Amino acid sequence: MADIYLALIHYPVYDKGHKVVTTSITNMDIHDIARSALTYGVKRYFVVTPVRTLQALAEKILDHWQHGYGSVYNETRKDALALVTLADTLNNTIQAIQQETGERPRLVATSARDGDRRVSFTQMQRRIAEEGPPLLFLLGTGWGLTEEVLEQVDDILEPIRGVGTYNHLSVRSAAAILLDRLRGAR
Amino acid sequence: MADIYLALIHYPVYDKGHKVVTTSITNMDIHDIARSALTYGVKRYFVVTPVRTLQALAEKILDHWQHGYGSVYNETRKDALALVTLADTLNNTIQAIQQETGERPRLVATSARDGDRRVSFTQMQRRIAEEGPPLLFLLGTGWGLTEEVLEQVDDILEPIRGVGTYNHLSVRSAAAILLDRLRGAR
User: Fold this and answer.
1) For A31-40, what is each residue's pLDDT tens digit?
2) Residue B150 is part of which domain span?
3) What is the pTM of this model?
4) Number of domains in chain A
5) Does the distance separating the beta carbons of A180 and B180 come in below 8 Å?
6) Residue B80 forms contact with A (CB below 8 Å)
7) Which of B41, B162, B173 sits opposite A173 (nearest CB)?
8) Chain B contacts of A121, Cβ < 8 Å?
9) Looking at beta carbons, which residues of chain A come within 8 Å of B32?
10) A105 phi and psi, to 5 degrees?
11) Which of A34, A153, B46, B177 could bond to A107 as cystine, CB 3.0-4.6 Å?
């Protein structure tokens, strides 16, 4: 079984007008995705931003739940947030996983859009079931990962489809569905 | 195909100490679950609270995205929030669906806990595929729906299982996974 890592990318991502921007860190992204990550056996959840003040904000949130009042008030939250690691860049994230596992992770982008070389969820499930390098799934904030990131990855996962054409899930919901499709017991 | 409705219950639910409480409405619960609801063809998403000031808060949020600046800034959000209806109580929610469809909905509770008479996701998928009364899925906030509510429903859906014993998904993530399991195309 291949190890699964997640990274929530705050830069580089598109904004609504297709401009490359850095998005803000939000409290709910950290909490919700950490809880989903622990539910589905993710090894580590990287929150990636180059902005120091936003990293400091994230550290404050993590410290509250890891060591502050939150750690006593809600232990289940403490357990989930223990999976969160802050990183400056995608490259640093890759290096951290390489240090932890001795292997370069295979990069898998997620996207709400159709396009070339999309890998199906079934194919990805099969790859996870095999022995292989760790898999790092990239989640874009804002209006999604830039072309520059997509060109750098090994695979792009097919979009999550519901019943119609609406494809505007929150990144928190998309992360939950992604993990359930790849790892859920049913 | 049976119609699907969702209700996010803010009262009566348990708090951490198993006391029956009313939880607060949060902006993110409204947005994230509305976006998942539209993705998966839910007919209407009820936000249920007896507290007038919290209803007024929710109305302000909805108005911003339906008619205010948000409706111009982000149309996809407007479309999702059009599914949201405020209700005082579960009974009012049931009546609203009865008025809309001419049928009393079948009530399905969701729970993170195992217990008696749990219905599997596969069984529920089959029921949705059949012609039948509308199905109203109840999502609890806080530490979940009270026993009083569970005694009132027709079915309780089995808990969402990941790879271990941790069962503390956010209600936003649980709603997304629930809908994907019942209605997702793959």
Assistant:
1) 999 999 999 9
2) 4-183
3) 0.96
4) 1
5) yes
6) yes
7) B173
8) 186
9) 170, 172-173
10) -70, 150
11) A153
Q: What is the CATH classification number for the domain harbouring A136?
A: 3.40.1280.10
Closest listed residue to residue B9, CA positions, set B51, B53, B45, B48: B48
> ipTM for the complex?
0.96
CA–CA gap between residue A154 and residue A105 (Å, rounded): 10
* Structure tokens that stand for A103 in this block: 């292997």
For testing contact with chain B, the best of A166, A178, A181, A183 (most B CBs within 10 A):
A166
Considering only CB atoms, which chain A residues are within 8 Å of B77? 168
Tokens representing residue A153 in the block: 């990855």
Residue-wise pLDDT for A114-166, tens only, equals: 998 899 999 999 999 998 999 999 999 999 999 999 999 999 999 999 998 99
For tokens 């619960």, what's the residue?
B29
* pLDDT tens by residue, A45-73: 999 999 999 999 999 999 999 889 888 88
Distance CA A168, CA B130 (A): 28
Torsion angle in degrees (nearest 10) through CA of B145, B147, B150, B156 = 80
